[in-house]
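Weekly sync, protein design subgroup
Attendees: M.S., D.O., the rotation student, P.L. (late)

Item 1: inverse folding check
M.S. brought a backbone from last month's batch and wanted to see whether the design step gives back something sensible before we order anything. D.O. pointed out we never logged the input encoding, so this time it goes straight into the notes. Structure tokens as presented (130 positions):
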């Protein structure tokens, strides 16, 4: 009888341990989602930097609208990257349940996408009208 009780306790212990590992895996995935979002935001900001650099390098190029158009392509790409990253991060976060870590609220992803998109649009305005 003692052997059956010990094996039941061992099985329960293994089940608890497996559930803890699964919970931690979800927490790691939540954190990986946030790191991936940050990587995409950096990629979008790199597009903004390329747009500004193109205008700076080719600003004297005639006709000037060609350099401005090339810069605008990168600004549009940056905005698309910001919103794509926001959408993907939000979708992934909805599928997961964090246990021990505090996930960023989806509204933080949204606000960051709004602010950076406004900054990219402002850069575009400056490139075309100044």
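Designed sequence read out in the meeting:
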């Amino acid at each position: 009888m003692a052997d059956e009780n010990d094996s039941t306790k061992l099985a329960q212990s293994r089940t608890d341990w497996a559930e803890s590992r699964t919970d931690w895996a979800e927490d790691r995935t939540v954190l990986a989602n946030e790191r991936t979002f940050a990587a995409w935001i950096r990629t979008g900001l790199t597009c903004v930097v390329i747009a500004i650099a193109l205008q700076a390098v080719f600003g004297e190029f005639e006709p000037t609208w060609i350099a401005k158009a090339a810069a605008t392509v990168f600004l549009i790409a940056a905005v698309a990257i910001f919103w794509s990253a926001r959408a993907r991060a939000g979708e992934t976060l909805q599928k997961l349940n964090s246990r021990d870590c505090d996930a960023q609220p989806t509204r933080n992803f949204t606000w960051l996408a709004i602010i950076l998109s406004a900054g990219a649009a402002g850069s575009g305005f400056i490139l075309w009208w100044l």
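Discussion: The mean pLDDT is 86. The radius of gyration is 24 Å.
Action: P.L. to compare against the previous round before Friday.
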